[in-house]
Structure formats: C-alpha cells, structure tokens
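Action item from last meeting closed. Structure (176 res):
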C-alpha cells in the first residue's frame, strides 16, 4: 500500500469528516474544530493518503505547548487498519514534534482502546495517570500517556528499532 504523509489542508476536511464519526463516535470533532486547528499556530495536523489517487487513509495531529507535543487526534479508516497507517502517522508526529522543538509527547487514550495503547507502548509511552470520566459519550476514563525525552539516545534507539522492524516487513517508510 502506497502511503504519503503530508500536512492536512482545508480541502482534506470532507474526507476527514467521513472518518471522524467512525473513529470517535457521536462526540467527535466538528468540521469547524478542524478548521480552527488548521488555523492554530501551535497545531500540526497531517493526513496519510495514497500518492496515486488521493484516497485518505487516516490523519493525526498535535499541539506544541512549550516543550510538550500533545497528540490531539490519530485516526485511521477501518478499511485501512492493521496496515501500519497509524504507526506511520505516529512516526511522522514524533519526527515533526522533534523538528518544532518538543522534548516530550503526551496524549489521552480510552482505557478500553487496547489497540492504540499497544501502538503507543511500542514507542515508549507510559501510563502516568487517569482522567476520570474523560469521554463525554460514555464517561469512560482516559489513560494519560507520556514518553521519556524524545531527544534522548534511548528514545532515538527505540524509534530506530521500530523503523528497522517495519523496513524488514517491507513497510514503505520513504515519507517518514
């Protein structure tokens, strides 16, 4: 599967809004929320799409707050899950976070979302707490995950090991 990761643009929002309710249910972001985020100078948003036909597979984004990159969203259309799209988006977020001066990354994830948790744990995210009743749709708790310093040699080694494993699986990482 040919994947290109690039900056999210306003023209992507129709396709993003097709994925958003599938990924996050009835309490998902609105189109206007994405418009606001694309105009937020501290926001960085990306799409994973086909380089051939522009088909949008997923998207991600983060806010830079001081030295912290706070991942605000990461979603993949169900038809393209288990094809390393989310991992490619996360690798891109890590690289972009480093480029803009982040030292750490953080996010919230549903306690029931084991698939996402497994991905984040592969990149050294650790559970440092809970936000009780965080999600409005069902009052589910959110785990608060953090990385160690993403500029450290240990973190860089972890990312390099994952990239090498993906390369061995013939996952195209040209854009990362």
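Sequence:
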């Amino acid at each position: 599967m040919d994947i290109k990761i690039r900056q999210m643009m306003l023209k992507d929002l129709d396709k993003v809004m097709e994925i958003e309710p599938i990924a996050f249910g009835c309490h998902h972001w609105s189109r206007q929320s994405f418009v606001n985020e694309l105009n937020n100078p501290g926001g960085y948003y990306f799409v994973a799409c086909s380089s051939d036909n522009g088909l949008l597979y997923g998207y991600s984004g983060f806010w830079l707050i001081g030295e912290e990159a706070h991942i605000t969203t990461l979603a993949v259309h169900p038809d393209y899950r288990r094809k390393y799209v989310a991992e490619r988006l996360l690798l891109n977020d890590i690289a972009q976070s480093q480029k803009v001066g982040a030292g750490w990354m953080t996010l919230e994830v549903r306690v029931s979302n084991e698939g996402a948790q497994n991905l984040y744990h592969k990149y050294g995210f650790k559970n440092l707490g809970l936000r009780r009743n965080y999600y409005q749709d069902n009052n589910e708790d959110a785990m608060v995950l953090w990385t160690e310093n993403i500029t450290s040699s240990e973190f860089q080694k972890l990312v390099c090991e994952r990239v090498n494993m993906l390369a061995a699986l013939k996952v195209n990482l040209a854009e990362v």
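Note appended to the action item: Residues 153-168 form the longest helix (16 residues).
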